[in-house]
């Protein structure tokens, strides 16, 4: 049976990984500066991660949410401790799209309204409401287009004010650093005014932290670079270092009721074990400090390369913009230099999303390769 052909694939077959490297079926070593869309947060096959998953699967891999699972509470407490998001409540699911779907559903439950405001170049997932809030008509089917969504330019505070004052908006959803869109960011004034407008208009402010969260921006969450208090925070990707897990943090002003959200696999024992291993490693290895130090070093080296026209992003969610499309450059980096990098909707942008424990030696290796390719 053939696979449904929806992914353009590079001719590389990874079979193992260790730290910041992966190895293909021919034994070739690749430097992974992309982490499978920012999923690999603590490195491939990290000993803490392997140990936690192995011990858990040997004990109990899965049972449904019909029973007590103390690992969920441990994970919630650890997120609270490391993020500083006090008094929020955690709902666990399986992916970023599912996290945003539940965030928007919860916002609609809370407000009794149904329209969503999102922003140009934003990406929030591929499920029904999440994809409708995504600024990409090519992936929105007619069934998704039934959703009531208004997409505004980033930093258009007058537009946000006008839409919220119509009284039918349940949620404003925003990435504080856009991922697939190309690492654009709004201003502090914009984000902080949106937060105020949401609170004044009975609208939930949803922080999509699926890619920019979990220490990647240099703080635990990217919204923490600003003076805002989201009502709902969605998370996934780096949360499980490759194990499927997602979730939303829910402000205590939103009351839970039995049955309003649900999932079969969300918050299962293996997922929680993986999630705890990631958080423990972030804490033990001071990976937020490392993210900031390596970001500063990366940017300082990037500034010395004249072909790089702009450096975008924060922390270890970075983009290098050129005056040409980077598709061929990425192929050369993969096939000639054995390095994984990412692209974006901005075809001139090279995305860098490495594991958070990257070192200077890896950054030097990348830039030496980049200079060779650019010549």
Polypeptide structure, described:
With 375 residues, this protein is an alpha/beta fold. It folds into 2 domains: 14-46 and 287-374, Aspartate Aminotransferase, domain 1 (Alpha-Beta Complex); 48-284, Aspartate Aminotransferase, domain 2 (3-Layer(aba) Sandwich), CATH 3.40.640. Helix content is 34%, strand content 17%. The chain contains 11 helices and 14 strands. The protein has helices at residues 35-38, 47-59, 70-83, 96-111, 128-132, 157-164, 188-200, 269-284, 287-302, 327-335, 360-374, and strands at 14-18, 21-24, 29-32, 89-93, 115-119, 149-152, 169-174, 204-208, 232-235, 246-250, 310-314, 317-321, 339-340, 349-352. The strands form 3 sheets. Strands 4-10-9-8-7-5-6 form a 7-stranded mixed β-sheet, sandwiched between helices. It has a 4-stranded mixed β-sheet with strand order 1-2-3-13. A 3-stranded antiparallel β-sheet has the order 11-12-14, with helices on one face. Helix 6 packs parallel to helix 7 (188-200). The protein is globular and about 55 Å long. The N and C termini lie far apart (44 Å).
């Amino acid at each position: 049976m053939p696979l449904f052909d929806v992914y353009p694939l590079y001719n590389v077959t990874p079979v193992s990984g260790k730290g910041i490297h992966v190895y293909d079926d021919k034994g070739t070593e690749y430097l992974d500066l992309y982490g499978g869309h920012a999923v690999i947060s603590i490195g491939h096959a990290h000993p803490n991660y392997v140990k936690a998953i192995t011990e858990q699967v040997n004990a109990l891999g899965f049972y449904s949410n019909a029973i007590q699972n103390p690992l969920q509470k441990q994970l919630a407490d650890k997120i609270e401790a490391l993020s500083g998001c006090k008094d929020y409540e955690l709902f666990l699911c399986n992916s970023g799209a599912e996290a945003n779907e539940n965030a928007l559903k919860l916002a609609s439950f809370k407000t009794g309204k149904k329209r969503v405001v999102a922003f140009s170049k934003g990406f929030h997932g591929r499920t029904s409401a999440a994809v409708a809030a995504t600024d990409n008509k090519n992936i929105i089917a007619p069934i998704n287009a039934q959703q009531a969504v208004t997409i505004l330019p980033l930093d258009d505070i007058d537009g946000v004010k006008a839409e919220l004052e119509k009284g039918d908006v349940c949620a404003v959803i925003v990435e504080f650093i856009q991922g697939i869109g190309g690492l654009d960011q709004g201003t502090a004034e914009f984000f902080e005014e949106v937060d105020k407008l949401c609170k004044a208009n009975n609208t939930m402010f949803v922080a999509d932290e699926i890619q920019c969260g979990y220490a990647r921006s240099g703080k635990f969450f990217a919204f923490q670079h600003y003076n805002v208090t989201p009502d709902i925070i969605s998370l996934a990707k780096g949360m499980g270092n490759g194990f499927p897990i997602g979730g939303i943090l829910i402000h205590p002003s939103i009351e839970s009721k039995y049955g309003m959200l649900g999932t079969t696999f969300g918050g299962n024992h293996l997922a929680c074990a993986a999630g705890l291993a990631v958080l423990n490693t972030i804490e033990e290895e001071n990976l937020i400090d490392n993210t900031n130090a390596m970001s500063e070093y990366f940017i300082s080296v990037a500034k010395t390369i004249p072909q790089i026209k702009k450096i975008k992003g924060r922390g270890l969610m970075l983009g290098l913009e050129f005056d040409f499309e980077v598709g061929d450059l990425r192929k050369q980096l993969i096939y000639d230099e054995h390095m994984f990098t990412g692209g974006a909707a901005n075809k001139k942008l090279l995305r860098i999303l490495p594991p958070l424990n990257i070192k200077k030696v890896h950054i030097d290796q990348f830039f030496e390769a980049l200079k060779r390719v650019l010549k």
